[in-house]
Amino acid sequence: MLRASIIQSVRRYSVNIASPIKSNRLEDKIAIVTASTDGIGFSIAKRLAQEGAKVMISSRKELNVKNAVEELRSEGLQVSGVVCHVGKAEDRKNLFEKTKANFGGLDILISNAAVNPAIGQVLDNTEEVWDKIFDINLKSTFLLMKESLPLLKRNKSFSPSIITISTIAAYRYCESLGIYSISKTALLSLTRITAMELALHGIRVNCIAPGLIKTKFSKQYYDTQEAYDFSTSNIGMKRLGTSDEIASVAAFLASDDASYITGETIAVTGGIFSRL
Ligand code: NAP
After folding, report:
1. Ligand 1 pocket: which of 217, 231, 232 to mutate (most atoms within 8 A of CB)
2. Which residues in 6-73 belong to E strands, given as ranges?
3. CB 3.0–4.6 Å: which of 12, 56, 126, 150 could bond 99 by disulfide?
4. The whole model's pTM is what?
5. Are 108 and 163 in contact (CB under 8 A)?
6. What is the CA radius of gyration of the chain?
7. CA proximity to 48, closest of 96, 115, 136, 107
């Protein structure tokens, strides 16, 4: 009985999380967010734009890009859009060229795209699945980082920023997330090592490790009451996170408020621990 009422109040509280955005700390900054037509990427793009950034929206499907750009522009936000499948070299080239042409440079790169085409035990999966997951979740971030450097290094702002998106599953065993988890653990290392390599260029590299966030990607973990109850039973706050709760952390890390943070991963999980 007591437990049920605690859960109820936590759920009620979660409805009131959003607060009006008052900051303009990203004014005049230019950002790319990959996979930003839905879910966490869309929320990040929106939040950066609400804080004053000019944001390049992108994902694989033209219609999704068009819809996302229209929605954000209708709110008076400064966004542009381009099709970019992060696994395609031509698309990535176009992404950087269009960003430079439309906005004049780049201050913030957020590498958000990821796939998980097959769940199940690691050793039951095929080489094809392994390659697909590593190509999109890890290699494309490496390539986006590398290809963004000419624009980021030319930057005159105080601390250009790269942000990668991992997951709490990078730290711990999560049943069925096998290869996806491995690719995301490698992303933590990519973040840490490139942060050291780029520190002297004044470019910060950080990572966010979300817990269970309510998006299409995670639907199977909450789409029935049974799945929801099971998923939230392991979360301290007994609720799913929202993509806006990832976006606010991304905006902080991208801003000069985080000017002395690099090589770090912030876990945003409602109380699933990633550390001692
Ligand atoms: P989502 O809701 O499924 O969002 C998918 C977005 O990615 C769409 O805009 C989609 O648009 C785009 N997309 C998919 N494949 C792409 C590709 N190859 N290239 C470019 N864009 C692509 O996913 P999400 O939950 O927001 O996840 C975003 C990130 O958070 C991922 O890195 C994921 O691993 C991480 N994460 C999520 C959770 C969670 O619980 N949701 C937890 C931990 C970490 P198109 O179809 O038009 O391409």
Report:
1. 217
2. 30-33, 54-59
3. 56
4. 0.94
5. yes
6. 18
7. 107
Domain ranges of the chain: 26-213+243-268
Tens digits of residue pLDDT in 213-254 = 999 999 999 999 999 999 999 999 999 999 999 999 999 999
pLDDT number for residue 10 = 47
Interval between CA 75 and ligand 1 midpoint (Å): 23
Handedness of CA 140, 145, 150, 154 (dihedral sign): positive
Per-residue 3-state assignment (H helix, E strand, C coil) for 233-248: HCCCCCCCECHHHHHH
pLDDT digits (tens, 9 = 90+) for 45-61: 999 999 999 999 999 99
Tokens of 10: 């936590």
Query: Tokens 């939040």, residue?
Result: 47
Please name the residue whose Cα sits nearest to atom 17 of ligand 1. 85
For a pocket test of ligand 1, which of 34, 36, 38 has the largest count of ligand atoms closer than 8 A to its C-beta?
38
Is 222 among the catalytic positions?
A: no
